[in-house]
């Protein structure tokens, strides 16, 4: 077994002596247990999860779906970039959701802005779907569709071969389709990337790098 148990561990005794869990010698990716808990992964606003160490190839088509819950109006959701300009990025900026794509010819953006008093940063779950099909891009938030014209119709493939960064990214990593450096604070669940017939549900507990991210436990309400 190479990954941690997604669970809470209560009182522990070794040789009749209770182990003091409040002052550990060292600690890594261990959070407190919540009295009320939901499915999902908690991001504390300080870090990121890194998936697909060998690199994810976006190329011509990709469909990203996820659910998020936050009270913060800024935060990176997901980024896949190349060393050049090709990249995709999803982020929350000033309470709007932005989906950026650069197939090599220039960045284009689909923006979802909540109407009236509606907010995406209300601490409730919201469903997001971002679709790139060659040069076309669209964004669906809670069933509301936004798409944008792309003047670069000849450029259809985002040639990436870098990890998928979720909720933020390291300072030394280039992200060509993200404008925000703010790490996401809140909960994410059901991250699925689909290419053609291939659908992949990502388990954050199997990320190759996790900082400030606590898989499989989402506080029922933020305190």
From TrEMBL:
CDD domains: LamG. It comes from the Eukaryota. Transmembrane segments: none annotated. Residues 38-218 form the Laminin G domain. SMART domains: LamG. Pfam families: Laminin_G_2. InterPro entries: ConA-like_dom_sf, Laminin_G, Neurexin-related_CASP. This is LAMA1 protein. It comes from Eulacestoma nigropectus (wattled ploughbill). The gene is Lama1.
